[in-house]
Amino acid sequence: MVKNKKPQVIVNLPNPGMCQSDLMRENDALAYRIIQWIFVRTTEVGGRTLVAGIVAGPETHGKYMSESVYKSFSPFVTSEEGAILQRRIWDESNIKLEKIQAGVISNV
After folding, report:
1. For 72-81, how does the pLDDT look when each residue is reduced to its tens digit (9 = 90+)?
2. What are the backbone dihedrals phi and psi of residue 41, each rounded to the nearest 5 degrees, phi first?
3. Most Cβ neighbours (<10 Å): which of 26, 49, 72, 90?
4. What pLDDT band is residue 2 in, cutting at 50, 70 and 90?
5. In DSSP terms, which residues pair with 31 in a beta bridge?
6. Which residues contact 98 (CB under 8 A, 6 or more apart)?
7. Bridge partners of residue 15, in order along the sequence
């Protein structure tokens, strides 16, 4: 923390990608297994991306990171249509969270 200044919070968006884990251990679908075999990363590789995001400096605030490299958002994400979808997902998520734990959104 810098003296006489507000503490800085850096919010960036590291994406570890699809990583090997037991989250989908009950999914025995052949299509899933093929996708997993082709695209899955080790948890170590995914973890590196998360650590890179954690140790990144203030120049990364608000940026997206994939494969440990900062990248531009897709044109859809920054479009008006993307903003509408983001708001819709946020609102729907809030409704579901409030059903699980009343008042939880008031803390956000």
Report:
1. 888 999 999 9
2. -105, 160
3. 49
4. low
5. none
6. 104, 105
7. 66
Rounded Cα–Cα distance for residues 6 and 11 (Å): 15
Cα–Cα distance, 49 to 47 (Å, whole number): 5
Residue in the block written with tokens 């075999």: 37
CA angle (11, 74, 19) in 5-degree steps: 65
Give per-residue pLDDT as tens, 49-72. Answer: 899 989 988 888 888 888 888 888
Q: CB–CB of 96/104 below 8 Å?
A: no
Query: Residue 1: pLDDT band by 50, 70, 90 thresholds?
Result: very low
pLDDT of residue 5: 67
